[in-house]
Every structure is written in structure tokens, then in C-alpha cells.
């Protein structure tokens, strides 16, 4: 099949290929043109496979009066499509991808051998008003089609069970099954959880204790010396029960960690002192801080007076 001068047929972003006896859609030639309206009516097209995903800019598509038996599922990629005519073809069913066309307002399915349930859901599509309702009905039908199929299968199963069981009693064991209860956490899980929590709190306590000791060493060296003198014998008695190699390694790593910790805290304290000195020598910042402090004080006074009066 050859199509001649397709570009010359494009006018105002519309391409008319009607009545050219085409047996297939020339997707490769049409795709680069990015047309919004495409008329392929009155041809001999039999398939729409691998077509729609290449034409995402389509707003209107006319495939009426062809020999199409089924519509490809990738029609859902035409997110801009508002008008679709499939009249006078050999279509029996619609793909579920059509339910994704949120912009579809016009759907013509007249003169197709549609299956009965689809005809009942969509209705006739002869005039413009019926085509508009057909679009909404088709989308609604396809969205709920899976549920309908499940209901039909369940009814068939129920009928088989009724026939197989005496006195009409169903033998569906699945209905008597209850959801398994969640098993409570085992003893091992509880133990590991407890020890994990204990280790976390111990580490937190150690960090806070180290921070307090270092702050004490910075501001009151005499008090820090007294505390250290009391703690060292305790630590010595603890490490004395360990293997000498293990104890030396523990002390080494603690010393390294303590040094890093000291450096960080020392840098933080120095930065705080520098900030304080800078504020102290800057009258503008002092006045601003005083205004903020007075605002907060008046706010809390008003809150306190209100609560006190109530």
C-alpha cells in the first residue's frame, strides 16, 4: 500500500484520507505531522494495532465505514480524543483502554455487530445526542465490566455448588473461613526489643553525662576535678575485671571518642561566646533583642493575667 502526498492533504492541522481504499493506517507517515483531526472513513482498514500510541495529539478520529473487527487496547493513550466514530464496521466489543479517555464526548458505534450486553449498556448511536450518551455509557460500562464478570462467575459457582450439594446446602468452604488473627509478639522478640531499648537509653544517658562533665570542666575546673577523682576509681574497678588487652582497647577508643567529643563541645562553646560578645558590642542587635524580649514578656503577662482571672 502506498499513500501519495499525505503532507499536501493536511489543512489547519486536519488530515483527510477518506475514500482512498486504504487497507491499513499509514502510521509512520501520519505520526510526524501531529495532526489533531484525522479522517480515515470509507476505506478498507481491517486493523488498528500499533496505531494509537503514535498519535497522541488526536482530538477527532473518524474510522467509520471500514472493516475493523476489533479496536486495539492502546486507544487509551489518546488522552486528548473527544470525538470517535467507529460506525459501520464489524466490531463486537470495546477494549478496556477506552475507559481511560477522559475527554471523550462523542462516540458513534452504530451499525456494528455489538454483543448484547454492550448494546444494552451503550444504546443506539445514530444522532448526535445518542453519540454523546454512548461515550459516557461506554466508559461507565468498561469501568464496571470487571465487576460484572466477577459477579457472573460467582453466580455460576453458586449454581454448581447448589447442584452438587444435597438439600441445596452449599459446600463452599471458603465462606466459613475466617481471617487469621495476628500472632502476638513472641518471647524472643520481646527480649530483643527490651535490650534494644535499654541500650538506646544507656547510650543517651552516657552522651548527656559526658556533655555535662565537659561543660563542668569548662566553667568550673575544681568541681570537675572532684567529680573526675570520684569516677576514675569506679571505672578502674570495672576495667580491672576485663582482659588487659580488651581493657586497653576500650580505654583507647573511649579516649579517642572523648577527645572528638571535647573538640566538638569546645567549638560550640567558643562559637556561643563569640556570638554573645558580638551581640554585646552591637547596640542595634541589643535593641532588637530587647524589643523581642519585651514583646514576649508582655505576651506571657497577658496570658498569665487571663488565666489567673479565669
Automatic annotation (TrEMBL):
Domain of life according to the entry: Eukaryota
Region (Disordered): 145-183
Keywords: Leucine-rich repeat, Membrane, Repeat, Transmembrane, Transmembrane helix
Pfam families: LRR_1, LRR_8
Transmembrane segments: 191-216
Gene Ontology CC terms, in alphabetical order: cytoplasm
Record-linked PROSITE patterns: LRR
This protein's name: Leucine-rich repeat-containing protein 59
Organism listed in the record: Aphis craccivora (Cowpea aphid)
Amino acid at each position: 500500500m502506498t499513500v501519495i502526498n499525505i503532507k499536501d492533504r493536511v489543512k489547519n492541522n486536519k488530515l483527510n484520507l477518506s475514500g482512498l481504499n486504504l487497507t491499513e493506517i499509514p502510521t509512520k507517515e501520519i505520526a510526524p505531522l501531529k495532526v489533531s483531526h484525522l479522517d480515515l472513513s470509507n476505506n478498507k482498514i481491517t486493523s488498528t494495532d500499533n496505531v494509537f500510541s503514535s498519535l497522541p495529539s488526536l482530538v477527532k478520529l473518524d474510522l467509520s465505514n471500514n472493516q475493523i473487527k476489533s479496536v486495539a487496547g492502546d486507544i487509551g493513550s489518546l488522552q486528548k480524543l473527544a470525538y470517535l466514530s467507529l460506525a459501520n464496521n464489524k466490531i463486537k466489543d470495546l477494549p478496556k483502554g477506552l475507559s481511560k479517555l477522559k475527554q471523550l464526548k462523542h462516540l458513534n458505534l452504530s451499525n456494528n455487530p455489538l454483543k448484547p450486553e454492550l448494546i444494552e449498556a451503550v444504546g443506539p448511536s445514530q444522532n448526535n445526542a445518542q453519540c454523546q450518551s454512548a461515550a459516557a455509557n461506554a466508559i461507565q460500562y468498561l469501568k464496571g465490566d470487571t465487576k460484572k464478570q466477577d459477579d457472573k462467575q460467582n453466580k455460576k459457582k453458586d449454581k454448581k455448588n447448589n447442584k452438587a450439594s444435597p438439600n441445596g446446602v452449599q459446600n463452599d468452604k471458603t465462606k466459613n473461613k475466617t481471617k487469621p488473627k495476628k500472632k502476638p509478639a513472641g518471647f524472643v522478640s520481646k527480649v530483643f526489643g527490651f535490650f534494644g531499648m535499654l541500650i538506646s537509653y544507656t547510650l543517651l544517658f552516657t552522651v548527656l553525662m559526658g556533655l555535662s562533665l565537659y561543660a563542668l570542666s569548662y566553667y568550673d575546673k575544681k568541681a570537675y576535678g572532684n567529680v573526675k577523682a570520684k569516677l576514675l576509681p569506679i571505672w578502674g574497678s570495672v576495667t580491672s575485671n576485663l582482659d588487659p588487652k580488651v581493657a586497653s582497647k576500650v580505654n583507647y577508643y573511649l579516649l579517642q571518642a572523648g577527645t572528638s567529643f571535647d573538640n566538638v563541645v569546645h567549638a560550640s562553646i567558643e562559637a556561643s561566646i563569640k556570638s554573645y560578645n558580638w551581640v554585646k558590642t552591637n547596640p542595634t542587635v541589643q535593641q532588637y533583642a530587647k524589643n523581642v524580649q519585651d514583646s514576649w514578656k508582655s505576651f506571657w503577662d497577658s496570658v498569665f493575667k487571663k488565666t489567673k482571672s479565669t
